[in-house]
Design a protein that fits this description.
This protein is α/β, with parallel strands linked by helices and about 325 residues long. It is about 30% helix and about 10% strand.
């Protein structure tokens, strides 16, 4: 099954951590990174992310070579996955920090009930009421600040491929549509509904489910989240789907698609920590394609897809994999 293996159980950095000096692996000095030029990429680079901390640790040990490799990740804006416990404070912390840097936060909402069909990224809100309350808190935390939201990786696709039991379908479509509507009440928010990847389902199977999930109310859809399909394949997939969705725009996750999808080993695990992958195009809004609003790093490179191939739990930082991605990048 060509799932996007989105990040589970994300432990997001809260408002207090973002807005105060905190201890780190470099002996107490908070890692710092420069923002990318706003004209090229308006998204915020978190100076306190896992990659930045890894760079600081390598530099402390005098390992300049590995520090340079991980800097390829640390210097780029990546998605901030809002956790289940403190959604309002996390959304507020990320968007306030981004606003102070004159940038926009890239947020990922991944808390739909019955998430990931009980696989590596299982979990999610306890029920529909809990999910609606969670989304409302995320929106309140964003306030009137800018944010781009990628909504619920895999949620629609796991209905289409039958992985999610059919008795949950109507509620899930309703939850997604109302989430889009609620987020769009915030004046500075853009929303992209996840639409899978070029190796999973064909556009003919997706347009109606995405409409039921509220894509018509959204700014567009997202493709290749946490996956490895090439940018060319993702553009082709996105264009075909856009044609069925009245010309909706889309964003492409290029975080780990530099070498394309993995073609060796068990085909059922091409999505879970595949070896030999590389970072893809750097995040930018200059895509050269009028339908592609941005290349974004939704999946945070270096964080595991799950406890397969020697990796830690989904969403946990894995330095060795991060080094591999950076080393393989041309």
């Amino acid at each position: 099954m060509f799932r996007s293996c989105a990040r589970a159980g994300a432990v997001a950095v809260g408002a207090a951590l973002l807005l105060t000096s905190c201890s780190s692996s470099d002996g107490g000095k908070k890692p710092t990174v420069a923002q990318q030029p706003k004209s090229v990429d308006p998204f915020w680079v978190n100076p306190d992310g896992n990659a930045s901390r890894q760079v600081a640790a390598y530099r402390k040990d005098g390992d300049d070579s590995n520090a340079a490799l991980i800097s390829k990740i640390a210097e780029q804006p990546v998605g901030e996955w809002i956790g289940p416990e403190n959604p309002e404070s996390e959304a507020k912390g990320f968007t306030e920090a981004a606003a102070k840097a004159d940038r926009t936060a890239l947020l990922v909402l991944y808390n739909i009930p019955h998430r990931d069909c009980g696989q590596f990224s299982k979990g999610g809100a306890a029920d529909g009421d809990a999910y609606r309350a969670w989304v409302d808190k995320v929106a309140a935390g964003i306030g009137d600040r800018g944010a781009t939201v990628v909504l619920e990786p895999d949620a629609v696709l796991h209905l289409v491929d039958g992985c999610t039991p059919p008795q949950f379908a109507e509620e899930r479509y309703d939850l997604l549509k109302k989430a889009v509507s609620r987020l769009k009440q915030q004046p500075g928010v853009k929303v992209y509904v996840d639409a899978g990847n070029a190796g999973w389902q064909q556009p003919d199977a997706l347009d109606e489910p995405l409409r039921r999930a509220g894509v018509d109310l959204a700014d567009g859809f997202a493709v290749n989240v946490s996956n490895f399909q090439t940018t060319a394949a993702s553009k082709d997939f996105g264009h075909k789907l856009s044609a069925k969705l009245s010309g909706k725009h889309f964003v492409i996750d290029t975080s780990r698609n530099g070498n394309g999808p993995y073609t060796g080993g068990d085909p059922k695990e091409t999505w879970c920590n595949p070896p030999g992958r590389a970072l893809g195009e750097r995040p930018t809004t200059h895509t050269g394609d009028p339908l592609v609003d941005a290349y974004v790093w939704v999946k945070r490179p270096g964080e595991s897809d799950g406890d397969c191939k020697g990796g830690p739990k989904a969403g946990e930082w894995w330095p060795e994999y991060a080094l591999g991605l950076s080393h393989n990048t041309k």
